[in-house]
């Protein structure tokens, strides 16, 4: 080998000879090749320097050259440092001279001159024979012991290689010495690594040629199962092809690869390792084998992942994300930890467990589960978790063990089920976590820990949801009165307007403000004021029931939204109810407090097109009401005040009508065509001292709306029967009494009973009473009605259809009801006998009705007969009975008596021509 003239320490010539010989030995060469990755030192990222004992650098690896950005060989070590660090550097160098490879110096922080600036790095050094090996650590990330060991191993060797490269005999001598030393050292190191690490060797194609004990232990494979196989045997399938491609690309180039690899153990579970792959290169620089040194980081990695997943779930909870999303994330967490286990989350609702989320099943397989409600009798897990206990069930394919799991267990080859309850902070059962395992795999300690972690998270998530709902409720409600607040009110108003727009009805907003409330607050204190507000709210709420949304808008301001009102009067009535509810005093402590309110009303769409306007106008109306008088109401639109308040006034009077004895019955006679008086129809009359005479067509609908028709109708019944009794006794024994009954009366359960009692009480035979029901009444609630009518008929009471022809009743329907009389509406009668009109057309309808009625065995009454022509036409049409102005209007009883005394028959009343014409 040619020598170079580089000045290196002198070596004894005789020794040189010997070394040269030894070096030439093929075995020695081979050994060098085997143990020395020739340029491994060059591949290290840590700067490595080799100095003479005098401090002159004889070697610096590529990382060192790159770092210092200048040529270093032959330069003093101290020239690396900035002038300020030279003294410290001198001390360090002395320290290194005294240190050995086994115990190098402690790290010294020195400042290295790099271009125009400097870098701080930790330097360690030691003396090896007559060379000082120095390693700098610029970055601390690579703290793995393996790298340290590799470094210690290789730096000297690299230096030796450099010497070899220089083909200096004295160097070879040196190398040889080193090699011999390192061989033993390597053996130790190898032993140490073998003990400590998971090691394996492969040939250049990746075929396993060596595995150590740890490798077998951790992978669960025997060595004979691995040797001769490709590394892909332990592949997990987690990495892409590109991932392996990149590794191969690096190591084939002779570079070290370092990174994390997810492998799979023999039992299928994951094995995550931190690996270093070191290529061993031949003289031509081609790898002839790879050594893979790994550390098992599965546990720490999974723990880290679990922590990451857990934090993610907690973050989702904190961010108030949807519960299903959170549960899905918890499932994902379980899956990351145990990809081979079927996990599911169940929540308790209405006494049954509901499947919420799960992993390990396809959508299809999950479907039957999703609809499952689990109860304790189906599943022993439920019985256990109901007692707040976790339970492990084996042999779940057996239906005797668990009906629920049976099918799935067979299908998926499951054997064991581990169930853990989800319990709230207060100790209530919220749900459960289930984990299903295949045979031979039971939950480990880690799994149990995992299930409890999941259970905790589910518990927190659910409690958070409950809290969120509570907060949501609070944000939409007034804390003092528990009524909806302004936000909820406005929300509902918007909804109501949209609905009203679509279905074309009215929406009313009532704005109520307590009168002189400030005074109470100021004189009696806020605590009494608050209690009063609370009590007021409760009273108002009671009066509203489900009719609308009552909200507290401010201090003593309340608003009521009526989402669907028919007429403005409906709103007035509700407003009146609110005012009435405040009539009684509020008893707070020793005070009896009287409260009044002022209410403003606005209507959509009449008073505005949007919620804001409607609300503002109700408020304006409220102020106007306050200005008029306390305990008052006002519409926003002035014209409505007149109409609605008139009606309100009428209603107020109507409520007192019976007490004040303001009602009277007038009687209109009904005659048969032969002229005999058959009976009378009782018609209500109301004369009020303030309002004057009010027509039945005005007050009857109001009485029906308010329900007042029931007591009024009862009065009519008694009064009419009392009268008929009087007349029968006075010598009109066969006279009949017809009374009008509205649908509301008929809807009362005790109607038939009321009638029969009244008949008995007044000693009137049932056949003297006829009840008139309008066509529309008969069409409502047909089933119930036909039952009631049968009962009346059984009593012997007659039944008439009033205003026939104005509704849309089908005669086929009516024919099944027990009806005696059909009264043709006056509008039909008015249409006949009129010259200017076409009399024939109107007549033909009447004739048809009469024929039909007769075929159903009904008597026909024509109402509103006003002219002799009409009478004549009706008689020709075979109408049975007539009633109308032509004979007599409805008269007070005494007037009627007077009239009857003079003319008992129709012919007495009328011009005889009419009857014969
Ligand atoms: P109705 O049962 O159809 O009563 C007949 C109406 O026609 C009565 O009006 C009567 O005065 C009127 N009338 C009678 N003859 C003629 C005529 O020749 N020409 C015209 N144009 N009208 C005539 P009234 O008394 O104003 O009653 C109106 C409605 O009020 C009644 O219609 C009835 O539905 C209701 N009503 C009256 N009294 C009672 C009652 O006690 N209870 C109930 N529920 N409703 C009643
Ligand atoms: Ca009638
Ligand atoms: Ca009628």
Query: What fraction of the residues are assigned to beta strands by DSSP?
Result: 15-25%
The total count of helices amounts to: 35
Small molecules held by this entry: ligand C2E, calcium ion
Q: Report the uncertain regions.
A: 1-39, 140-158, 160-173
Instruction: Quickly give the structural class.
Output: alpha+beta
Report the C-alpha radius of gyration, rounded. Answer: 53 Å
Shape: elongated
Walk me through this protein's architecture.
By secondary structure, the chain is α+β, with helices and mostly antiparallel strands. The strands form six sheets. It has an eight-stranded mixed β-barrel with strand order 24-25-27-28-29-30-31-32. Helix 11 packs antiparallel against helix 12 and helix 20 crosses helix 22 (638-655). The longest helix has 31 residues, at 445-475. The radius of gyration is 53 Å and the shape is elongated. It binds ligand C2E and calcium ion (2 copies). Ligand C2E binds at residues 668, 682-684, 695-697, 700, 713, 716, 740-742, 772, 802-803, 826, 863-864, 866, 884-885, 890.
Give the topology, please.
Layout: H1 13-24, H2 26-35, H3 40-43, E1 48-52, E2 57-60, H4 62-68, H5 86-97, E3 108-114, E4 117-128, E5 131-137, H6 145-166, H7 169-196, E6 198-202, E7 208-211, H8 213-219, H9 223-226, H10 241-252, E8 257-264, E9 270-281, E10 287-296, H11 298-318, H12 323-337, E11 342-349, E12 352-359, H13 363-370, E13 373-374, H14 380-386, E14 391-393, H15 406-412, E15 414-423, E16 429-438, H16 445-475, H17 486-503, E17 506-514, H18 517-524, H19 526-544, E18 549-552, E19 557-565, H20 568-581, E20 586-588, E21 591-593, E22 597-604, H21 611-628, E23 632-635, H22 638-655, E24 663-672, E25 677-688, E26 692-694, H23 696-706, H24 709-729, E27 736-740, H25 743-747, H26 751-761, E28 769-774, H27 775-779, H28 782-795, E29 798-804, H29 811-814, E30 821-824, H30 826-830, H31 839-855, E31 859-862, H32 868-876, E32 881-882, E33 891-892, H33 893-902, H34 906-909, H35 912-916
Parallel strand pairs: 22-23, 25-27, 27-28, 28-29, 29-30, 30-31, 31-32
Antiparallel strand pairs: 1-2, 1-5, 3-4, 4-5, 6-7, 6-10, 8-9, 9-10, 11-12, 11-16, 12-13, 14-15, 15-16, 17-19, 17-22, 18-19, 20-21, 24-25, 24-32, 24-33, 25-26
The structure holds ligand C2E and calcium ion (CA) (2 copies).
The site of one calcium ion (CA) has 4 residues, from loops.
